[in-house]
Amino acid sequence: MDPLTEGHALFTRRQFFGRSALGLGTAALSSLLGRDGLLAAPPARRGVPGLPELPHFAPKAKRVIYLFQNGAPSHVDLFDYKPALKQWHGRQIPDAVVGGKRFSTMTGSQTDRPVLGEITQFAQHGQSGAWVSSFLPRTAEIADDLCFVKSMHTESVNHAPGITYFLTGSEMAGRPSMGAWLSYGLGSENEDLPSFVVMTSRDKEASCGQIFYDFYWGSGFLPTKYQGAAFRGSGDPVLYLSNPPGMSREVRRGLLDDLAHLNEIKREDFGDPEITTRIAAYEMAYRMQTSVPELTDFSREPAAVMDMYGPDVRRQGSFAYNCLMARRLAERGVRFIQVMHAGWDQHRNLNSQLKIQCEDTDAPSAALIRDLKQRGLLEDTLVIWGGEFGRTPFLQGKIDDVKNWGRDHHPYAFSLWMAGGGVKPGVSYGATDEFGFNAIDRRVHVHDFQATVMHLLGINHERLTYKFQGRNFRLTDVHGHVVRDILA
User: Which neighbouring-strand residues pair with 473?
Assistant: First the structure.
């Protein structure tokens, strides 16, 4: 059999459709781009990651650091001071306030719902007079730099859907995360580091079973190159960053070049965009061999800065370490830095664990704001601190069982704070009722929060979309309004 005939005989059905789809798709794309005058990108945009039409308008923020507090901090013990809780302590919360609301299975069938007064002491701080708990003394010191949003509300009563809702705009897993959307739309200012980095930590006592699911930083239906790069809490921040024993950097470069050539052949055969993603991932890993060791070297950090973050800053994988890493990533142009800390789920250990959790996170969070501010980075870095919902003003359990006091999940009102990046400092926005149960004034929904974050980055949340399965999707789904009153 001659070579040409043999080649035709070995041509598989998969190869036929792969090449045909690629050929037809390329022809169609060329026609459409030519029709719309988009066949050649403007020279000024070549080599610049992100979409050419973004930002839609002048941004106030260039990057985001999201200090996500998994498990839901208790707003009524930390930020939302309600004297009525002390006055009603031990008495049944009025049915008119609860109003048939849905709760988790832990209190859903609990008929006795005594009000639980805050277990902390509140005081007003700064010129703004913001109410902050005694458990957060360092946060209280920077109150005039913060914008407290006290009228947040959401749909979810359980952790994973609640976190997913905040980070992807949907309670169901599978949508692109906020960081993936921003990485897709805006790209990165540093080609030697990922545009979207994730770091996780948890309370040292491992008091709650919060799990960090990959879809919290996934790319959903966007190409996988936009998903978050999860830095590990021990060893090399990224797996396989170090060369195997006996392999030099030059040998690795040669192997990657050969591998890229083979992948290019496959991409030409099948037109699979994920092959492009894989090539890009290999190249990023190679560049990170140089950039990451410098990134994680704290030896040149002034002693005063290290002390500001607290003693845990030297322990890789701690919240303090991750906060300092977040600042270093921000100053190197990483677009979205997601720092997730689990341990806020105080169902039965409010009297013991809440204080410990605050001690672990208070100083590093405040130090990050101070550090960014003194370096001139806070003005264009948006920092967010908050969880997926709040905690109930009433008690989970029995009032005489003081050791096991706790609060259940509460989606109807809670607080978060934001700083820098174009938000007004020294502001407390919105309000809840006298029990901190319902958001009643200038209510802010999850989608409103997301729309506001995107607006600060120069994005019209209704215009950043991606077509998937015949529909144009966006982070805010079909909802969301920018909370303009908190914009500087």
Answer: 466
H or E element in which residue 64 lies: strand 63-70
Instruction: Give pLDDT, residue 252.
Output: 72
pLDDT at residue number 54: 96
Q: Where are the beta strands (DSSP E) in 314-396?
A: 336-342, 381-386, 390-391
Encoded amino acid at 462, one letter: E
Say what the pTM is.
Answer: 0.87
Host H or E run for residue 468: strand 466-468
Q: How far apart are CA 197 and CA 347, in angstroms?
A: 31
Q: Rounded mean pLDDT of the chain? A: 88
Rounded to an integer, what distance in angstroms lies between the CA atom of residue 254 and that of residue 258?
Answer: 6
Specify the DSSP class assigned to residue 45: G
Strands 229-231 and 196-202: parallel
Instruction: Please classify residue 49 by burial: count the beta carbons closer than 10 Å to its beta carbon, then call 0-12 exposed, 13-18 middle and 19+ buried.
Output: middle
pLDDT number for residue 28 = 37
The predicted structure's pLDDT at residue 5: 45
64-235+301-486 CATH fold: Alkaline Phosphatase, subunit A (3.40.720)
pLDDT of residue 12: 55
- Tokens 């997601």 sit on residue: 338
Residues paired with residue 197 on neighbouring β-strands, in sequence order: 229, 337
- Strand pairing of 444-445 and 196-202? unpaired
Closest CA to 106 of 421, 394, 461, 479: 394
- Tokens found for residue 111: 């008929």
- Which residue numbers in the chain have pLDDT < 70? 1-49, 209, 240
Report the interhelical angle of 319-331 vs 350-374 (nearest 10°).
20
| DSSP letter assigned to residue 109 | T
Domain spans, the chain: 64-235+301-486, 238-295
Instruction: Please state, as a whole number, how many other Cβ atoms lie within 10 Å of the Cβ of residue 284.
Output: 18
Q: What is the pLDDT of residue 20?
A: 43
Output the pLDDT for position 261. 75
